TrEMBL record:
Protein name stated in the entry: Adenine DNA glycosylase
Gene Ontology BP term (one): mismatch repair
Broad class of enzyme this protein falls into: hydrolase
Catalytic reaction(s) noted: Hydrolyzes free adenine bases from 7,8-dihydro-8-oxoguanine:adenine mismatched double-stranded DNA, leaving an apurinic site
Stored CDD domains: ENDO3c (cd00056), NUDIX_DNA_Glycosylase_C-MutY (cd03431)
Task of the protein: Adenine glycosylase active on G-A mispairs. Base excision repair (BER) glycosylase that initiates repair of A:oxoG to C:G by removing the inappropriately paired adenine base from the DNA backbone, generating an abasic site product. 8-oxoguanine (oxoG) is a genotoxic DNA lesion resulting from oxidation of guanine; this residue is misread by replicative DNA polymerases, that insert adenine instead of cytosine opposite the oxidized damaged base. Shows a powerful dicrimination of A versus C, since it does not cleave cytosine in oxoG:C pairs.
Encoding gene, per UniProt annotation: yfhQ
Organism whose genome encodes this protein: Caldibacillus thermoamylovorans
Domain HhH-GPD residue range list: 49-200
DNA sequence: AAGGCGTGGAT
DNA sequence: TATCCAAGCCT
């Protein structure tokens, strides 16, 4: 055993801790849709959706997704654009692309059965150390750690660990620790119990220690240090990028939309034509019209401002100055002209959904 | 190792 | 209003 871990486990009653945690979990666990059965596919889908995403946000998406893609085969055969439309608004869109790639792999290489071996399952696209432990412990009852943000918060308090949880090395320490304390009889309830405790009791701010089933095991509670843990260094916030974007109508009154590149930010989603505003430029409208003339040979006439959409991503901020305008001329390959009612059939990032909503509001008046 | 990758909720 | 996120993974 790791020396650090063995020191942490001194005077720690593993069996009592497991018993208290698991009994509490059995009694208090929330009734969540992915807990209805032990279908490895559905548990996998839920875990991917839950990556960096709140339970309340995921629930309606999970119902819709499973209704549309009830099993491995259905997801493997799904149309990617339809899939992205189903994921629209959940964010981190590469998750669903990776999930489909992984499910296709399961379909062709493993006869449509989700692998139950750590070595095999963890090689699939989008499946990292957390998802490996979560799916294999919950669906197959394998004693594999599933260390997420909840688990690091809970364990950093119980063992008074002050390592910065933003670091990869710290997550590995927690995994080594869980290797030692995980229940071999019920690893599923143990892993879920730690996460559920983090979600319901051992919350980031104002933890409800008096309701905690394992407070007798908690060193932070003994010393009153729980609100100082876990230690997490701040991440810097990103820069702001300004755009001018337009709802452009062609001569037949159809709407111009454009597909984003298949890699990078908001990959393969659609947007309204836009150009980055280089700071220092004087008139963004004239610049936009000229740029389109130069780049595409299209005549654009921006008629009036629509709104300004500010959208904060995890690593940057967009400020979109939205306009309504007309366009004449040929359009490039990645652009498409669609009827007003067809716009909603395409997957759009939230900032462009806001822009479209403003437009619909405006023309309804 | 550290930064890219979304979104909406809580405080 | 500003900040920090919430069941991470990829490169």
């Amino acid at each position: 055993m790791n020396e650090r871990v063995s020191v942490l486990l001194k005077n720690f009653n593993i069996e009592e801790f497991q018993k208290s945690l698991i009994e509490w979990f059995q009694e208090e666990k929330r009734n969540l849709p992915w807990r209805a059965d032990k279908d490895p596919y559905k548990i996998w889908v839920s875990e991917v959706m839950l990556q960096q995403t709140r339970v309340d946000t995921v629930i309606p998406y999970f119902y819709r997704f499973i209704e549309k893609y009830p099993n491995i085969e259905a997801l493997a055969n799904a149309d990617e654009q339809e899939l992205l439309k189903t994921w629209e608004g959940l964010g981190y869109y590469s998750r669903v692309k990776n999930l489909q790639a992984a499910v296709k792999e399961v379909q062709t290489q493993y006869g449509g059965v989700v692998p139950d071996e750590k070595k095999t399952f963890s090689k699939l696209k989008g499946v990292g150390p957390y998802t490996t432990g979560a799916v294999l412990s919950i669906a197959y009852n394998k004693p594999i750690p599933a260390v997420d943000g909840n688990v690091m918060r809970v364990l950093s308090r119980i063992f008074e660990i002050e390592d910065d949880i933003i670091k990869v090395r710290t997550r590995k320490l927690f995994e080594e620790l869980v290797e030692e304390i995980i229940s071999r009889e019920d690893p599923s309830s143990f892993n879920q119990g730690l996460m559920e405790l983090g979600a319901l009791i051992c919350k980031p701010t104002s933890p409800d220690c008096l309701l905690c089933p394992v407070r007798d095991h908690c060193r932070a509670f003994q010393h009153g240090t729980e609100t100082r843990l876990p230690v997490k260094s701040k991440q810097k916030k990103g820069r702001t990028v300004q755009y001018i974007a337009a709802i452009l109508l062609d001569e037949r009154g159809k709407v111009v939309i454009r597909k984003r590149p298949d890699e990078g930010l908001l990959a393969s989603l659609w947007e309204f034509p836009n150009e980055e505003v280089i700071s220092g430029k004087k008139n963004m409208i004239i610049d936009f019209e000229n740029e389109w003339l130069d780049k595409y040979g299209a005549n654009v006439d921006l008629l009036e401002p629509l709104c300004v959409v500010e959208h904060v991503f995890s690593h940057l901020t967009w400020k979109i100055h939205a306009f309504v305008g007309l366009v004449k001329g040929e359009l490039p390959q990645n652009m498409k002209v669609v009827a007003f009612e067809e716009v909603d059939e395409y997957p759009f990032p939230v900032p462009y959904q806001k822009m479209w909503k403003e437009y619909k509001k405006k023309i309804a008046i």
